[in-house]
Design brief:
With about 280 residues, the chain is of the alpha/beta class. It is built from 13 helices and 6 strands. The chain has a 6-stranded mixed β-sheet with strand order 3-2-1-4-5-6, sandwiched between helices. The chain is globular, with a radius of gyration of 20 Å. About 30% of the residues are buried.
């Protein structure tokens, strides 16, 4: 949400984008209303230029198309604006994730950030503690949505995500938001480079439960290095030691062996969507 007080806390990159965009707009003889018709609204352009609201990822794409003159300034700014929005502890992982060749993800509490809808992410972040300002929530939501560019990047990454059944049954925001989230998750699972699986609540019935240790994130970098990532509360850690990363990958394999197959998982998600409507 655009607020006057946001102008005092705007990041250096947000200020730079605002100045460059305004100068480029004036150079082309466009009013805020005219530019707004091309990429959003006059109010959004005004908020961006006055730093009342930082440019969203979609707006930067539009600014590059209309004002960029093939220089790539606003395209380059996308990564920096996104990075500034992330918590400090997350920035190194975010850079690696954006270039990853492969991701193996297991989540036990909430839908993984790469697969969250905007409404789900906003509800999740708005309800976090300690509470964040409306501006901060919006920055985090837009940064999280921008991560999805990974799915359409070249080379196309391979993404395997396993979600504990509890993450699908835990309603975040509202029933409507959750139904939309589940439908989006199913759509992602139908993409050729993404595999979505569900770990059922009964997975530990036989006494073997490799998911005991919680979330798992392992990626393969462009240098063919495997890196693990752990996050809990306000702390995070990148793991590069091959032996430790190997352990996480082995656990992921065991979790996958207990999970429903890809087709069964999509059918299960569809059943949950039907039950919520």
């Amino acid at each position: 949400m655009a607020r006057a007080e946001n102008k005092e806390t705007a990041s250096p990159m947000a200020r730079l984008v605002a100045k460059v965009a305004k100068r480029a707009r004036l150079r082309k003889g466009l009013s805020q209303e005219q530019l707004g018709k091309e990429i959003g609204s006059a109010a959004a352009i005004s908020a961006m230029e006055t730093c009342a609201q930082p440019a969203s990822d979609d707006m930067l794409v539009g600014l590059e198309r209309v004002l960029g003159d093939e220089m790539g300034v606003f395209e380059e700014a996308r990564a920096y604006i996104r990075l500034e929005a992330y918590p400090e502890r997350y920035k190194e992982y975010a850079l690696l994730e954006g270039k990853a060749l492969m991701l193996q993800l297991y989540v036990a509490k909430v839908i993984h950030g790469l697969f969250q809808t905007e409404a789900y992410a906003r509800a999740l972040m708005s309800g976090a503690f300690p509470p964040a300002s409306a501006q901060r929530v919006e920055e985090l939501v837009q940064a999280r949505m921008a991560r999805k560019a990974l799915f359409n990047r070249e080379p196309t990454p391979l993404v395997d995500v396993i979600l504990d059944e509890a993450t699908l049954r835990r309603v975040v925001g509202s029933e409507a938001i959750m139904a939309e989230q589940l439908r989006h998750l199913a759509e992602c699972g139908r993409r050729r480079n993404i595999t979505v699986q569900v770990l059922p609540l009964q997975a530990g019935l036989d006494g073997e439960y490799p998911a005991t240790y919680g979330d798992i994130s392992v990626m393969e970098t462009p240098d063919f290095e495997y890196v693990g990532y752990m996050e809990t509360h306000d702390e995070s850690l990148l793991i590069r030691e091959p032996a430790r990363v190997s352990t996480y990958m082995q656990r992921f394999s065991k979790i996958r062996a207990q999970a429903l197959g890809p087709r069964e998982s999509l059918d299960f998600i569809a059943q949950l969507v039907g039950a919520s409507e």
